[in-house]
Every structure is written in structure tokens, then in C-alpha cells.
């Protein structure tokens, strides 16, 4: 009981400080992260550059892979033939310039201004989604890569998205039990199989509706096997949210 009360108190203060930080940006001059023009706004992105963002407007309703505008129904061939373990992917933006540069700077250079912008866009995507979730979990990073980069970008986003949405963040909901080889030099089949067995889910995920966060989704293999493990442990549903989807 005491530990729960302490946790709730800490979370309450973290939420208040986080909201104060966000609102304080209205009082301080800033600049657009893409065109560098001065602006005074809560988000570091001007209206002109917002219109340049590559929206993932016509995509598969399950995996968010880009589809031709005339493709009906909006389901890609792989999902039609063999659906993935997750229920659906929320990925409103494509990993294309100029948006991809913001994602890259946040992920590899710890540009936190870009991180807060990505956070706002993730929150926007959730506002348009009527489903409710019991827990927010994150794709765990590989120890070597976290050490090289200095931090884990998806976890940074997940902690703050939890404060914005009120969805409890389960840090240990999903663990990585083995590192995998790089996906870059593998063919599509081996890319899909490479992350198999890399994750272990907590028993506490049983019977829960989960939101699984990753920064960028390419083939969808990692989120598929993560969702598969979560459902093996009894999760009722697993939706995925990502800052960007690579167009492949």
C-alpha cells in the first residue's frame, strides 16, 4: 500500500512538471526544427513545414504499410494471407525527408527538441484512436546499441507518452532475452525470422489490452514477435504505435 501511494505521488509530480515544461515553451522564443524560422509556439514546427510532413495517409489497416490510393479494401497482401500477431499499427508518418531527419537526430544524437515534437505527433495519433489500453509497453533495446547511443529512444518516448495519456507505463512488461544480428544484410524472410525468441513478456500482461511502442517500423518483424510473446502470456490485444513507418 505504501509503495503504491509513493508511486502515485511521484507520478503526479512528474506529470505536473512535464506539463509545466510543455506550457513554458509558449513563453520562450524558438525556431522551426525543419526550416529554422523563428516562432513562438508550443511545438517547434511552423505551419508551412507541418504541411511538408510525409503523412502515411493511405495504408494497410492492420500493419500501416503504404498502399496505392486505389487499393481496396485497404489491406496489404501479406496481412490478407497471414496476419501478424499484433492487432493493428498506428503510424501516421512515413520515414521520409524532412521528417526522417528529425527521427534520426532524436534517435542517434539525442536531439530532445525533436523528441518532444515526435511525442506530440504520437499523442495526436492516439487522440484519433477510440480504443483504450491497460498498459503501455515498449520494444526493449539491445544492450550494445543502448551503450553506443547513450539512451533508448523508444523508452524515452514511452515514459512521456504515458504521462500525457494516463496509460500506465509497464517498464518490465516486455524484456529482451537475446540480442539479434543486424537486419540490414538479411533478405525479407530472414529479417522476419531474425527477432523470433528475442523477447520475454511478464505474466502481468495476461488479460490486458496493450499499446506497444517502437520508434521506427520497417518490416514489422520485431513488433510481430513482441506481440506474439505478449499474447502467448495471455494479452487480450496488442496495438502498436510508432513515430514513423518506413515505406518499403
Spell out the key features of this protein.
248 residues, single chain, 4-stranded parallel beta sheet, alpha/beta, 39% helix, Rossmann fold
What does this structure look like?
The protein contains nine helices and eight strands. With 248 residues, it is an alpha/beta fold. Strands 3-8-7-4 form a four-stranded parallel β-sheet, with helices on both faces. Strands 1-2 form a two-stranded antiparallel ribbon. A two-stranded antiparallel sheet has the order 5-6. Helix 9 links the parallel strand 7 and strand 8 (237-245). Helix 4 crosses helix 5 (112-127). The mean pLDDT is 88.
User: Helix count, per DSSP?
Assistant: 9
CATH architecture: 3-Layer(aba) Sandwich
Strand segment count: 8
The CATH topology corresponds to Rossmann fold
Largest sheet: 4 strands, parallel
Q: Span from first to last CA?
A: 49 Å
Radius of gyration, whole Å: 18 Å
Strand content: 5-15%
Overall geometry? globular
Taking strands numbered 1, 2, ... along the chain, how are they ordered across the largest sheet?
A: 3-8-7-4
Instruction: Look at the structure and give the mean pLDDT.
Output: 88
Helix proportion range:
25-40%
Structural class: alpha/beta
Number of domains: 1
Amino acid at each position: 500500500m505504501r509503495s503504491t501511494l509513493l508511486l502515485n505521488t511521484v507520478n503526479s509530480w512528474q506529470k505536473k512538471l512535464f506539463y509545466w515544461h510543455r506550457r513554458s515553451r509558449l513563453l520562450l522564443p524558438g525556431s522551426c526544427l525543419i526550416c529554422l524560422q523563428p516562432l513562438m509556439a508550443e511545438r517547434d514546427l511552423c505551419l508551412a513545414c507541418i504541411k511538408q510532413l510525409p503523412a502515411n495517409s493511405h495504408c494497410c489497416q492492420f500493419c500501416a504499410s503504404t498502399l496505392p490510393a486505389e487499393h481496396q479494401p485497404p489491406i496489404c497482401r501479406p496481412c490478407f494471407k497471414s496476419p501478424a500477431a499484433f492487432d493493428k499499427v498506428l503510424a501516421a508518418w512515413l520515414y521520409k525527408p524532412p521528417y526522417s531527419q528529425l527521427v534520426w537526430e532524436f534517435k542517434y544524437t539525442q536531439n530532445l527538441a525533436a523528441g518532444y515534437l515526435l511525442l506530440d505527433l504520437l499523442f495526436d495519433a492516439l487522440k484519433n484512436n477510440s480504443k483504450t489500453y491497460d498498459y503501455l509497453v515498449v520494444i526493449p533495446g539491445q544492450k550494445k546499441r543502448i551503450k553506443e547511443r547513450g539512451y533508448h529512444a523508444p523508452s524515452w518516448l514511452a515514459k512521456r507518452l504515458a504521462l500525457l495519456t494516463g496509460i500506465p507505463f509497464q517498464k518490465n512488461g516486455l524484456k529482451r532475452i537475446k540480442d539479434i544480428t543486424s537486419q540490414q544484410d538479411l533478405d525479407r524472410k530472414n529479417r522476419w525470422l531474425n527477432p523470433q525468441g528475442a523477447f520475454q513478456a511478464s505474466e502481468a500482461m495476461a488479460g490486458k489490452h496493450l499499446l506497444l511502442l517502437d520508434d521506427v517500423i520497417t518490416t514489422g518483424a520485431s513488433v510481430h514477435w513482441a506481440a506474439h510473446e505478449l499474447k502467448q502470456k495471455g494479452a487480450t490485444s496488442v496495438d502498436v504505435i510508432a513515430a514513423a513507418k518506413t515505406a518499403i
